[in-house]
Amino acid sequence: MSSWSRFRSSRGFVVSVVAVAVFTDAFIYDMIIPILPITLQTRIHVPEEELQMWMSILLAAFGGALFVGSPIVGYYADKSPSRQSPFLAGLLTLAGSTAVFWFSASLAMLVLARVLQGLSAAVVWTVGMAVVVDTVGQDRVGAAMGIVSTAMTVGTVTGPFLGGIIVTRAGYHAVLLMAIALIVLDIVLRLAMIEPQSAPQRPDDVQGLLDVSDQDGVAGYGSPGASQDLERNDESISQEKHAALPGIVRLMCSSSLLIVLGSATVNACYFTAFDTVLPLYVMKIFGWGPQGIGFCFIPLFAPSFLSPVIGHAVDRVGARTVASVGFLLDFPAFLLLRFIVRDSTTDKIVLYLLLLVAGFASTLQMVALMVEVNRVVEQRQKECPGIFGQKGGTAQGYGLFNVAWSGGQVLGPLLAGVLIDHFGWGTMVCTFGVLSAITAALLAGADGKVIRRLWGGREDDCEDILHTTA
Predict the structure, then answer these.
(1) Full set of structural domains in the chain with CATH
(2) What is the DSSP string of 27-76?
(3) pTM over 0.90
(4) Per-residue pLDDT tens for 221-276?
């Protein structure tokens, strides 16, 4: 293999390509945030009283597409011989969504653009995370996810920041030309990348493949020793029973994963609530335009540079501990946000400080939860080798993670819109503060025991029930 080929398949380059893909997806998604109110008012001519409703619908459309597409993409990626094809398909979908948004002249076209963006994100966050795990191995997942999380947060915050500045100074078309240029760069990198030629080749994975290589019970007949034949046949029968259920269904029965998915839903819920409510709220309180709205996201952006450090910390102290600290920090931050009600210098400074705390907390949560998903999948594969097939269940695990995240993305804008319209800003931020505190308590103290008690026994009881009813 030439030095150029070795570089294209190296860990650093592959993780960098996935990070750029995540950055591109997040950047274009959030770049539209400060543009949407202006687009709805000046291009679509939506009445001012309907502005909040359509902001919520457009953001929820993205989450709905991500919700539907993620498990399908995850299942296909784990069964496909290559992850490169779906990865490129996601990029083409993102390019299509950008073009539709650019030339949209109706609400239906805007909704379609956000749906296509959601489908693209399903590919990036499912296939991309699986490629990272395949490349770096279990011991370095935390550090790699820290890099990916940095790219996501940088894209999330610089998107609205640069989008607001460019649309103010250069116009609507300039900001979308910037998005197209970024997509072209992403195309070049994804075509240059050489993905790992096989699933993760760690010792436990190799052993799992060896254990299930004779699932049809034929190859073992010629081996010496009757007892060994019987053992292989017993293993084959066991594996056939495991195969009766798709791996993604078995993952859904894991109490450990359900807690992680619930936490991801809460995180996404208030994450997208900010996208929906914060631009309109600062426009109302401070009279800020797109550029001022963009500056609001700077404090959320800064802590993301700590993601690689946080990733190393996750590898050392555990994902659940780090995630719990993140949700715990959000509790006072959200409660204090209710006091931002006046157009004063003090309120602006406090807003920036609280957003900085929220940004740091979000970084802790995202890195830790992404690592925990892979840990749960690896644990399930160790307990039942081969249940996810030759390529493992990594993409399916992240597919479920995306389902939970997208569920929060659908719920967050709708819940935030209802709360702020009927009860006000203070009630909305206090509600999310309480949700954060409850989530922190579950992650720190439950550790899977709550759901096991609901089942009245072991974590695998739900699987036993499914096998019994099959």
Answers:
(1) 3-197+245-469 (1.20.1250.20)
(2) HHHHHTTTTHHHHHHHTS---GGGHHHHHHHHHHHHHHHHHHHHHHHHHH
(3) no
(4) 344 444 444 444 444 444 444 445 666 777 777 778 888 999 999 988 887 787 77
